[in-house]
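Continuing the batch. This is chain 6 of the set; chains 1 through 5 are on the previous pages. Same settings as before, nothing changed between runs. Recording input and output for traceability.
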Amino acid sequence: MNVSDSERLSAVLESMGYEKGKGIPGADLVVMVMCSVRQSAVDRIFGLAEKFKTMKNRPKTILTGCILKKDRKTFSELFDHVLPISELLNVERTNKFFRGEGTREHGLSRRKNLICERDMSKKSLLPSDKRAYLPISNGCNNFCTYCVVPYTRGKLTCRDHKKIIKEAEGLIKNGAREIWLLGQNVNDYSSPTDPSVNFARLLQMVNNLEGNFKIFFMSPNPKNFSDKLIKVMAQSKKFSKYLNLPIQSGDNEILRKMNRPYTAEQYIALVKKIRKAIPDINLSTDVIVGFPGETKKQFENTVKLFKKVNFNIAYINKYSPRWQTAAWKMKDDVPFKEKKLREKILQDIINDK
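Output for chain 6:
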């Protein structure tokens, strides 16, 4: 989603006369789109700020993206401006800001539509690999206890399906070979202009577009992965047969503490249903090791699930506390060395495959 925001922000800046530079040295303006999911990502921003201090010809710097309120105050002392991405993705507001009519720091925008419409005439339309990111929604209502997204992006808002389809048509016309439908939880999608257009129907509509392209989407939540969606995936000729289905933990008690409203058994049953409908699907997952209170026995349940499900790919994350989340109040009691060991055990299972 941050890559998608960066592409759209590039288009906004190009419309104002800016051109892409080759790198930070020699640039007039550097805009960083920040991620707040893990503390390590936040720490990298501090490293960049130190780098700017030592530059001889320091460019103007703007920090944007997913930023917690607490972090905005800290970073406002290190960067020229700290702005919510929703402000910068609005051409009129951005023009106003660069004319000196905006403030140095803004709070989180209350506007409902936080995704600007892509300008198809701009150079930043597509990266060289012809992969196009197409946001269908923004924000999340799930409040998983480890996640800051609801606090940085706000509650779920969905784009009009007609605008999504129009943008997809433009992307295909301009050479996109992969269309990635994006949302913090795509299967929560419901068109604001026609509630009957849920994610399964939207996927079907994109599949019906003319052109030589493949459809990907991320990420869904196992809690409401419907039979209708599975049927559409199986019948869609342009669906890529790749699915990222986050598990986060293979232990039911840890899942409960994470506020993930499904069990390991329900997850396995869902995978069986998907593989029955699409036998050659490639399955990836996200998992967190070392969540507060995770015992070795509970981690073993995740190991058993990995062996049973037989994932093609796994994105394994060592738990790190994030301020403002519910898990922040829990004791981070799994030593880093143990987290690293658990990460390696799961990675070895994937590597063996």
